[in-house]
Design brief:
The protein is elongated, with a radius of gyration of 14 Å. It is α+β, with helices and mostly antiparallel strands. 23% of the residues lie in helices and 31% in strands.
Length: 64
């Protein structure tokens, strides 16, 4: 049986509840959740993670 490999992107967004922290707690938790979710998904490859933490939709940061 042939298995397909899909390149996926993670998108993480800031929670306003974290205030002015350098990196919000919700950002850290979302990174962990995405990693855990993809851990056992052999057909998914995390190609890129985009983080909206103090950015707008037009100038987001790129993290690998």
């Amino acid at each position: 049986m042939k298995t397909s490999l899909f390149h996926v992107a993670g998108y993480i967004r800031l929670s306003r509840e974290d205030g002015d922290k350098t990196e919000s707690d919700s950002i850290v938790n979302q990174k962990l959740l995405i990693g855990r979710y993809l851990q056992d998904k052999e057909d998914l490859f995390l190609y890129q993670t985009y983080i909206d933490d103090g950015y707008t939709g037009t100038n987001f940061a790129e993290v690998r």
